Amino acid sequence: MPLRPAGHPRALRHLLSVLLPATLLTLPLPALAAPPGDEPLPVAEIQAFAEVFERIKRAYVEEIDDATLLRNAMRGMLSELDPHSTYLDQAAYQSLQESTQGEFGGVGIEVGKRDGQLTVITPIDDTPASRAGLQAQDVILRIDDTPTEGLSLQEAVDLMRGAPGTAIRLTILRQGEEAPRTLELTRKIIRTESVKQELLEPGYGYLRISQFQARTGEQVVDALAALTRDGPLEGLVLDLRNNPGGVLQAAVDVADAFLDSGLIVYTEGRLPDTQMSFSASSETTAPDVPLVVLINGGSASAAEIVAGALQDQRRGVVMGTESFGKGSVQQIMPLGNDEGLKLTTALYFTPGGRSIQAQGIAPDVEVVRGRLEVAEGNGLQVREADLEGHLDAGEDRRRRGEMSERLREDYQLGEALNLLKALNVLEARRDG
């Protein structure tokens, strides 16, 4: 049966009933056709949508129900906005709740779409993905036997999640390599502990934040207290590499631990409630300790907020490689029936007014990833310690000069520690 012209009141109301919630249909037709403050609804485009909808219903090779068509239309509508806005069906909405709670069955990677390809943003620490050697920027070509080309981001995530103990194969292509490689992983319960700390050397602390959860700010305060239990720190490395972000308030709390005043971040959007600013409080856990912040291409969103705030406030030296560049804010809007909408509503800005979106944070000191290799000698070198009867400086001093395994394996971390020591040398000379 042919459709009435879209300009016809009955036809327009029918088309709008497909596109708008039923509660809005009680409004007079003119209000629907031209919502206050917005452009009039594009009648020709609505007519074209209805015609496409009807032709799929009548002519597609397989019968398809209205609900599926409408959900697909919503997915398409959102996917064309930006990589982070999406429609959440029941499974996706439940998956988001699991991620928020910090526990789910999977391999432990954050993924996104770049140039249409499923790309690793970052592997999460101490997960099957990190232990298998997955790296930021790896392109995932296949999940088991399913090619990722054409899959939505949510479909790919659903394929990678599953019952703990089950096997999964990921075929990846790494930058600089010509041939793909296949990795075998075993899913496990992913419980994300967001903060770890240790002393690299006496007086020099290491604080690793793998992602920003609701309690990350409290955990950072506790970690700093543990690091300073035996005395004040002479320097601290804040490691935000491969940190995909997370809760905005947690990022503010972490930055506030190192700042005693000034702006941390602000957001700008179309709606009044999306325009926010966050400033540091005077109660600060570590206001004076020399600080180096490590970032890389896997540092995104909330991690970039912290790095940008500390950089703009000249509170620390940012070292590593350029960050990911995700500077957008997403709000989760429930739609009922355990479904939802994740919609980008604002952009982040650093205290200096820099937009993080698609720009990222450039390090003050660029240091690429690498491994420190100790040159093997020919055995003919003679040192004081090799001479018979040499004076022993003490086991503690020798141990202090030894290189820890973490520093041996992590060139960027070693350079951060060296920079902290150099800063202390310069400070001591000024005071002297």
UniProtKB/TrEMBL annotation:
GO cellular component: outer membrane-bounded periplasmic space
Protein EC: 3.4.21.102
GO molecular function: serine-type endopeptidase activity
One of the protein's GO biological processes: proteolysis
InterPro entries, alphabetized: ClpP/crotonase-like_dom_sf, CtpA/B_N, PDZ, PDZ_6, PDZ_sf, Peptidase_S41A, Tail-specific_protease
Domain of life: Bacteria
Domain named PDZ: residues: 93-165
Pfam families hit by this protein: CtpB_N-like (PF22694), PDZ_6 (PF17820), Peptidase_S41 (PF03572)
Residue ranges the record marks as coiled coil: none
Signal is among the record's keywords: yes
Keyword vocabulary terms for this entry: Hydrolase, Protease, Serine protease, Signal
Signal sequence annotation: 1-33
Family per record: Belongs to the peptidase S41A family.
Protein name in UniProt: Carboxyl-terminal processing protease
Record organism: Halomonas cerina
Source lineage: Bacteria, Pseudomonadati, Pseudomonadota, Gammaproteobacteria, Oceanospirillales
